[in-house]
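Reply to dn_fold:

You asked what the input looked like. This is it:
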Amino acid sequence: MKIFPKIIKLWPAFFFLVLMGLQGCEDKCESVYTYMTYEPVYMSFAELRSAITETTPQTIETPGKIYLYDNYLLINEVNKGIHVIDNENPASPQKLKFIEIPGNVDMAVKNGFLYADSYVDLVVLDISDINSVKEVNRVEDVFPIHVNWERHFTFDQSQGVVTDWIENEVTETRDCGSNQVSVWREGVFFDLSNAQRGNSTNFTPPSSPTSIGGSMARFTVVDNYLYTVDESSLNPFDISSPSDPVKGDQIWTGFGIETIFPYKDHLFLGGQTGMQIFSLKNAAAPEFVSNYAHINSCDPVVVNDDYAYVTLRSGNPCVEVVNQLDVLDISEIENPKLLKSFSMQNPHGLGIDGNNLFICEGEFGLKHFDAADPLKVGENMISHFDDMHAFDVIPYDNRLMMIGNDGLYQYDYSGNELKLLSTLTIVPKP
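and this is what came back:
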């Protein structure tokens, strides 16, 4: 009979303990977060600047840009170096050697000197004797550090250049009330809400008829100047003394620049938002002339007479779903005009020689068009090779050199249709 009164007397204390318990549960409320971290792999600057060597021919695994120099074809192995191919007989190309150049993506040649990027540096190689390639100069810290901006990575630039990223999955528990949205892991910063880009420390036809790059090139040589583009700038180098490039003033272009193509006294820059035209009247400091804007899309460009041909494609980082060929009237260079657009599958690089227009369609192969009438070019397809991957082309002297993920293909186009001359098979990286 005395138990109930005791409970009544204990109730306030019991209620207080319950409230404290609930408050304790709230304090210990936790959530589980899983996310990816990316640990940078560094190459020291000392190692970078002592790493260029010649080796025996190597297997081509990850081909990039292609360049024609005299009787040689130079094929970039992405971030690793350059394959040298003896192409004196296009029906039977022979691999001669491999030049190891860490961080190499682009190249151009003038008078026996090869200019190539090596991560942040421009290196100059004497290839006048192809059997004895020598590094003769290096201009340091002229290119932005390679980094995947799309993932919003930052890194410790004092440790060198980033050559790779190690992916790790991390799971951690946080308090429910935590407002933490950004963390440091493995030396890399990740903003889990509004990620911002990290900062880098650096933000006439070809001079020889047998020194020609493809449409995806970021390097080109015109007379006594090497011009390079990165995502946001055009950079002239005076190479009147070929072994001793002198960097000129950087020219701001806006973001998204991808390619450069020289034609007569102008440079045509392809970008994700359009084509830009620069005059070379002052070769040391090209001046902006005009712009053709389009929706956000990957965009190389080639030019012939009064027409520019621009391919637009979808795919990362080109987010818009558009695949087409644009034909522009550039007879008034200050006011380029869109004449017509033609639907494509997934166009990459392209090339034009006279009335022959070639378009690489990536996994959809290679297409050959009759460009005699630019307004009907997309309707006048001569042939389509759909059993290969096509990335970029160089048409020259009735010979087409095409590089893709699965091979180097060479064709004769002196007749009405492409005639296959040879195939140099590429072994994809496993």
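The longest helix spans residues 3-27.
Hope that clears it up.
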